[in-house]
Design a protein that fits this description.
Blueprint (H helix, E strand, L loop, with lengths): L5 E7 L1 E3 L5 E6 L1 H9 L4 E6 L2 E9 L5 E4 L2 H7 L6 E8 L10 H8 L2 H8 L3 H12 L4 H17 L10
Antiparallel strand pairs: 1-7, 2-3, 3-6, 4-5, 4-7, 5-6
Length: 164
């Protein structure tokens, strides 16, 4: 098995306060260019020994960054303003998104919704799973998973259209 190239660098955790507000970690341009020229946009970042799957985003000014929501920062043991030592590698399986356990269980109960979900692109699957995991309480995650399963089964997910 081929060893993936890795990059290690210090980076601050910053906040964009205009337009769409979010926290992010800049990626040095030389690192981002090497990864993106190799066809990599999805990466695994390790901070404080914790791994997170992220995507490299481009800024209008030509810079590159990883979006880091507050739940992600909590898992990584970092907060806005910290300078962290980040290790970055290409995601060896970018088309296999991490799915919420609650979503997997809900999909196992509804084969039609499951078939529709697994026919989605990996990016859409990732977005749906992030909607489920975007809340703290387990009860809320279960409720969201059931809501998504229902919407998949009834073609009422935003932008969804039933087959003609």
């Amino acid at each position: 098995m081929e060893k993936l190239p890795s990059f290690e660098f210090p980076s601050p955790i910053l906040r964009q306060d205009y337009g769409m507000k979010y926290h992010y970690m800049p990626v040095p341009n030389d690192v981002a260019v090497v990864l993106m020229q190799s066809g990599t946009r999805r990466v695994i970042v390790t901070i404080n020994g914790v791994k997170e799957n992220r995507a490299i985003h481009n800024s209008a000014d030509g810079q590159h960054h990883l979006v880091m929501g507050l739940p992600v920062l909590r898992r990584l043991g970092a907060k806005p303003g910290d300078v962290v030592l980040a290790k970055l590698i290409s995601d060896p399986d970018p088309d296999n998104p991490d799915l919420a356990d609650e979503l997997i269980e809900a999909l196992q109960m509804d084969s039609a919704a499951s078939d529709r979900f697994y026919a989605m692109t990996p990016g859409l699957q990732r977005s749906v799973s992030m909607y489920v995991t975007g809340v703290k309480r387990p009860e809320s995650r279960v409720r969201r998973a059931m809501e998504i399963t229902y919407k998949l089964g009834t073609y009422t997910l935003h932008g969804d259209q039933p087959p003609s």
